[in-house]
Design brief:
Number of helices: 12
Number of domains: 2
Structural class: alpha/beta
Largest sheet: 5 strands, parallel
Order of helices and strands: HHHHHHHEHEHEHEEHH
CATH architecture of the largest domain: 3-Layer(aba) Sandwich
Strand order of the largest sheet: 2-1-3-4-5
Helix content: 40-55%
């Protein structure tokens, strides 16, 4: 029986099974997810060559992600591609003035739907508990594209949680910041394609110190994901040359909203102090 696909399609099926796949399977999965637009045009032979595995491994991979064989997996990828093309044609026919903005808004909506399918509610709740219950410092880090998310995370969480700590992105400053890491500290990190090695290095330092980590990323195979305690994945609906950051932003705001609810009593005085200081320094 062919696997029943969610609205996110084959990519969602693959991501849902990543933690149960063999090393060879993960090579195939990574190649398909990174080259999703080209995947419908792959044969078992070409996919095997691109992933560096055997043709038999490709066939086994198809069954492990829920299909009777590679033929059915290939057909599902092809049908998705046809559907995407059809949707594009219908949108252009419906609105002749639907330019870059309209297409990008549609892409953001699709990416948000994909993220809704991908994030497990239990994992989200566990991430909130980790961020709110620690007794040490809460480090926040993101680099390159993710630096803006890290800055916004500090803005949202600092009035709610004590000892929130924005880790500076300059490498010498990072070394100074990480000297006194303790197991009671924790980290909220962001990394989106193209991934910054510096983020993985920071995550590794927290991991080596025994400090737990919440990672917000676009793919469970991101370099830092294996080191994190909880991973919140915001997968794009399909590959694109300029992917929206809307998914990471919405997930961050959802985390902050849930943290605000959970810390309502304990953060009351802190919020009052923040309001006083904001007014004193001209923030309205």
């Amino acid at each position: 029986m062919i696997a029943v696909m969610s609205t996110a399609g084959v990519a969602a099926l693959i991501r849902a099974r990543l933690d149960r796949l063999s090393p060879n399977d993960r090579l195939i999965a990574t190649h398909i997810l990174a080259n999703y637009a080209e995947a419908p045009f792959e044969t078992a032979e070409s996919l095997a060559a691109a992933a560096g595995v055997s043709k038999a491994a490709v066939v086994r991979f198809a069954t492990r992600v829920g299909f009777p064989g590679f033929t059915e997996l290939h057909a599902a990828l092809r049908d998705e591609a046809v559907e995407r093309l059809g949707q594009g044609g219908r949108r252009r026919g419906a609105r002749a003035d639907d330019g870059v903005l309209g297409r990008f808004l549609a892409r953001a909506r699709a990416d948000l739907a994909s993220t809704g399918e991908a994030i497990d509610e239990a994992e989200f709740a566990a991430a909130v508990r980790l961020l709110t219950r620690g007794t040490g410092k809460l480090g926040i880090f993101g680099h390159r594209k993710s630096a803006t998310l890290a800055e916004y995370a500090y803005y949202l969480l600092n009035p709610l949680i004590a000892n929130v700590w924005p880790i500076a992105a300059g490498e010498p400053s990072i070394a100074d910041h990480l000297i006194d890491l303790e197991p009671r500290d924790r980290l909220l990190a962001f990394t989106f394609r193209r991934y910054a090695k510096l983020t993985t290095d920071v995550v590794r330092e927290f991991h080596n110190a025994g400090a737990p980590i919440v990672l917000v990323t676009d793919d469970v195979t991101a370099p830092a994901a294996a080191l994190a305690t909880h991973v919140l994945v915001c997968p794009p609906s399909s590959p694109g040359s300029f992917e929206t950051a809307a998914t990471g932003l919405v997930v961050l705001e959802a985390l902050a909203a849930e943290i605000a609810l959970r810390t309502k009593r304990s953060s009351g005085r802190r919020l009052d102090a923040a309001e006083h200081l904001w007014k004193q320094f001209g923030t309205y």
